[in-house]
Amino acid sequence: MALAGALDQTLLKHMAGFIANLHEHGVLFRSLHFGNIVQTPEGALGLIDIADLSIQPFALSCTARLRNFRHLCRLAPDRLAFGKEGWELFLQTYGKAVHLRLCSEKSFFGKAGRLFDMWSLQEGRLLSQGGPRVIQFCHRYDTPFLDCARQYAVLFRDTPYKVTTVYLTGKPSDEMVHSSGSDASDFP
How confident is the model over 82-110, as pLDDT tens digits? Predict the structure, then answer.
């Protein structure tokens, strides 16, 4: 979905309802982000690039929903399109459309609300390190993800760019930081 500036509140609510409907119907779309959500001329929302979409016979778990949210707001342009207030409105609208069965709503929405802050703080910490920087995101630090991270970092060796690898799962590990070949690594 091409975005110019902040998301319109009506569109934001429509998107929250759309994603809530997907989650309630067991649709797990691992690549959920603005670039993979389209809006038809009639205003309906849909998904593209659905190679990693799966459908379960039950509503998504809270963990899967949070993973989708992490992916949705992980890029700075997407967070800027939401804005902090927009993210809160998105979560409120989403909350009215879902029935969380296996976790407490308070815990789920507390974690979901902090995602926006976590990424914003992460970005501020990384950008404050100075110099041109490339940030790569890896789901985990086992094979093949670590190999890909290392290969990507090597591309920027002997250039003015510093590579930071952000691992989305796993515990901090000095061994992984060294193995990635990056100038810095982080574990949110």
Answer: 888 888 999 999 999 999 987 888 989 98
